[in-house]
């Protein structure tokens, strides 16, 4: 699920950036530092949408670096248990398949794939129904439900299922 | 109402026995009461009692069930939380209680209770409760759905995290570790420690009977779940059947307490409007009670829907009658293409025939022509023709009558008299309108004959005569 929230971060700025463009430099550095990171609490920071406010800088003794407390608005993405997501399959193997929805990796084990889908090994490993009408392979899009998440300090990993109503392949680039 | 309530009551009873059979509504603060007062089954009794009532005051219910009101209230609160019943609490005086009693008396299946309590209540809070059938239907369905879904999910391992085990070193992993376990060489997961091939736990169970207690327990659990699911399907079958039976029926709706009260008392008043002396007092209470008008908004809404359904049927007769509607005389103009019904002829004629109690055929014909003439001035021509025809006939009859009189002047038969007199009357009237002088000589004998006939003739003739009298008045006016 996506959230638009306000976060705060202490930015250390090298003295060489001091000048007319101090604020711009600060914002650019913030984006470079923060976007794409993952915090266990808020999830992935997808994008910074604006700087809320930059507090008073504090010069560090000895180094000359200045610390600014910066409040910024950003879009974060955090998967939840029970959430329905659409994801792109990245890898298929005997144990199941991996998919990713943006920055999140999701593993769907073969127990959570409908029973009528069989693993077919080969050049392009895939899961196929007995009549061949539905095929899960690399790069096809699936809708899945997250049934478990593991949130580390720097990454989030999910396991999902497609063994439920309205879940499964939604678009297969190979057949289109 | 009782026809549609019955299946729902059955549903409630089945649900009560299925789900609330062993519910104890014991407060948490009285654990010592344990063995002595085992009140399991009370819930079923209460629900059964409620199926036989509509809105009921909780004290009355307690009295009927010989329960302590506290105990009953606890049960009812439980059911309220279960969304089976709706409750209403209100502060009320003796008057309000009376209103409720009146409503109770008005409902057919309501028990006559609680009359004696009226004097005691003075602005006490009273609680009322009532089964909420539509919600019960939903609640029971949802409950069944949840039960089935839970069991099935358990059975199919739907939401469980797959576990993997390394057969070499016995290290366990679960699906959340999958990302670290994938190897680029083949399509299996590999142990981080010994690089052995991992197997899914359930597969391992199937492949090699290790005899680990954990696995056996797991399998037993599966068996148990399957068994449970089957048992559930079998045992709740009557309930499910009842649910499907009830599916398309209209849900009995009692509305809020106020609405129900107003409706019930109104129905009661309508049903035995003049029967009891205390009815007016009841009705006056109903008016004095502020909530009365509101419920009837709901009532009218229902009627609107009803008419909407039958709209087709309603419109039809209206149009057909309107086409037959008699146009008022000032709207009829020369050259208008009107049916006879619109001119009001046919109707009047038929009316006349009806009132005249079927005299001789020729008479009615003559009268028709007369009426037509009187009613519509633009039918003058027809009238004249008819008039002359009538005159001619009249003359002939007169001649015949004269002959008869000459032949048998003393032996006048009553039937003959009636015939001749009535025919004469008709002819005479038609003349009287237009020509007076010619007929003068006729009047005397006619009058004599009618007087005679009054003495001898039967009811039929009298009716005829009265009909003629009306005609006279009408013509003159």
From TrEMBL, chain A:
SUPFAM superfamilies in the cross-refs: N-terminal, heterodimerisation domain of RBP7 (RpoE), Nucleic acid-binding proteins
Sequence ranges assigned to domain RNA polymerase Rpb7-like N-terminal in this UniProt record: 8-64
Major place of residence: nucleus
Cell compartment(s), UniProt: Nucleus
Example GO molecular function: single-stranded DNA binding
An example Gene Ontology CC term for this record: P-body
Keywords: DNA-directed RNA polymerase, Nucleus, Transcription
Stretches assigned to the S1 motif domain: 79-156
Transmembrane segments: none
GO biological process: positive regulation of nuclear-transcribed mRNA poly(A) tail shortening; positive regulation of translational initiation; transcription initiation at RNA polymerase II promoter
Pfam family, one: S1
Signal peptide: none
Described function: DNA-dependent RNA polymerase which catalyzes the transcription of DNA into RNA using the four ribonucleoside triphosphates as substrates.
Family to which this protein belongs: Belongs to the eukaryotic RPB7/RPC8 RNA polymerase subunit family.
Protein's recorded name: DNA-directed RNA polymerase subunit
Organism name: Erythroxylum novogranatense
TrEMBL record, chain B:
UniProt region (Disordered), positions on chain: 268-293, 399-477
Keywords: Transcription, Transcription regulation
Compositional bias segments (type: Acidic residues): 465-477
GO biological process: transcription initiation at RNA polymerase II promoter
Stretches assigned to the HTH TFE/IIEalpha-type domain: 8-141
GO CC annotation, single: transcription factor TFIIE complex
InterPro entries (UniProt xref): TFE, TFIIE/TFIIEa_HTH, TFIIE_asu, TFIIEa/SarR/Rpc3_HTH_dom, WH_DNA-bd_sf, Znf_RING/FYVE/PHD
Taxonomic superkingdom: Eukaryota
Cited Pfam families: TFIIE_alpha
SMART domains with a match to the protein in the record: TFIIE (SM00531)
Biased composition annotated in UniProt, kind: Low complexity: 268-284, 413-423
Family: Belongs to the TFIIE alpha subunit family.
PANTHER family attached to this UniProt entry: GENERAL TRANSCRIPTION FACTOR IIE SUBUNIT 1 (PTHR13097:SF7), TRANSCRIPTION INITIATION FACTOR IIE, ALPHA SUBUNIT (PTHR13097)
Protein name, UniProt field: HTH TFE/IIEalpha-type domain-containing protein
Organism for this UniProt entry: Erythroxylum novogranatense
Classification of source organism: Eukaryota, Viridiplantae, Streptophyta, Embryophyta, Tracheophyta
């Amino acid at each position: 699920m996506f959230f638009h929230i306000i976060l705060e971060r202490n930015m250390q700025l090298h003295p060489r950036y001091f000048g007319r463009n101090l604020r711009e430099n600060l914002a650019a550095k913030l984006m470079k530092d923060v976007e794409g990171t993952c915090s266990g609490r808020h999830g992935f920071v997808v994008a910074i949408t604006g700087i809320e406010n930059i507090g008073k800088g504090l010069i560090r003794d000895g180094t000359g670096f200045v610390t600014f407390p910066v409040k910024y608005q950003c879009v974060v993405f955090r998967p939840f248990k029970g959430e329905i997501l659409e994801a792109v399959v990245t890898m298929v193997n005997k144990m199941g398949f991996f998919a990713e929805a943006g920055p999140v990796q999701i593993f769907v084990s073969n127990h959570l794939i409908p029973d009528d889908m069989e693993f077919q090994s080969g050049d392009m490993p895939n899961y196929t129904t007995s009549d061949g009408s539905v095929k899960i392979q690399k790069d096809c899009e699936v809708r899945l439900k997250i049934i478990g998440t593991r949130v580390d300090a720097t990454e989030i990993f999910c396991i999902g299922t497609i063994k439920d109503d309205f879940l499964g392949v939604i678009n297969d680039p190979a057949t289109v | 109402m009782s026809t549609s309530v019955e299946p729902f009551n059955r549903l409630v009873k089945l649900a009560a026995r299925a789900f609330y059979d062993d519910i104890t509504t014991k407060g948490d603060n009285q654990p010592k009461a344990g063995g002595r007062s085992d009140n399991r089954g009370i819930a079923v009794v209460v629900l059964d009692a409620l199926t036989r009532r509509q809105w009921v005051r909780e004290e009355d219910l307690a009295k009927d069930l010989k329960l302590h009101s506290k105990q009953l209230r606890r049960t009812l609160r439980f059911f309220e939380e279960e969304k089976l019943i709706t409750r209403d609490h209100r502060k009320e005086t003796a008057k309000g209680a009376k209103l409720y009693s009146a409503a109770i008396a008005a409902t057919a299946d309501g028990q006559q209770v609680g009359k004696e309590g009226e004097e005691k209540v003075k602005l006490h809070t009273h609680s009322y409760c009532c089964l909420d059938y539509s919600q019960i239907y939903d609640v029971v369905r949802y409950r069944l759905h949840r039960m089935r879904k839970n069991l099935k999910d358990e059975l199919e391992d739907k939401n469980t995290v797959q576990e993997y085990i390394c057969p070499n070193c016995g290290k366990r992993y679960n699906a959340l570790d999958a990302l670290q376990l994938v190897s680029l060489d083949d399509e299996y997961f590999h142990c981080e420690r010994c690089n052995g091939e991992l197997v899914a736990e359930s597969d391992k169970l199937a492949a090699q009977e290790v005899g680990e207690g954990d696995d056996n327990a797991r399998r037993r659990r599966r068996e148990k779940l399957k068994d449970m699911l089957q048992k559930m399907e079998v045992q709740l079958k009557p309930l499910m059947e009842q649910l499907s039976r009830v599916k398309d029926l209209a849900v009995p709706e009692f509305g809020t307490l106020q609405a129900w009260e107003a409706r019930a008392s109104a129905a009661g008043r309508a049903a035995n409007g003049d029967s009891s002396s205390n009815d007016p007092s009841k009705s006056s209470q109903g008016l004095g009670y502020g909530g009365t008008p509101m419920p009837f908004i709901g009532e009218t809404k229902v009627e609107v829907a009803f008419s909407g359904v039958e709209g087709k049927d309603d419109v039809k007769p209206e149009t057909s009658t309107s086409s037959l509607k008699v146009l008022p005389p000032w709207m009829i103009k020369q050259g208008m293409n009107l049916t006879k019904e619109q001119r009001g002829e046919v109707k009047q004629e038929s009316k006349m025939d009806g009132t005249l109690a079927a005299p001789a055929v020729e008479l009615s014909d003559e009268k028709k022509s007369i009426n037509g003439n009187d009613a519509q001035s633009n039918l003058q021509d027809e009238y004249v023709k008819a008039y002359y025809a009538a005159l001619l006939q009249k003359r002939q009859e007169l001649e015949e009558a004269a002959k008869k009189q000459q032949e048998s002047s003393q032996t006048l038969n009553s039937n003959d008299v009636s015939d001749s007199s009535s025919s004469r009357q008709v002819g005479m009237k038609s003349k009287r309108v237009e020509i007076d002088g010619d007929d003068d000589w006729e009047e005397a004998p006619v009058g004599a004959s009618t007087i005679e006939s009054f003495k001898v003739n039967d009811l039929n003739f009298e009716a005829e005569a009265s009909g003629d009298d009306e005609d006279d008045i009408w013509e003159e006016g």
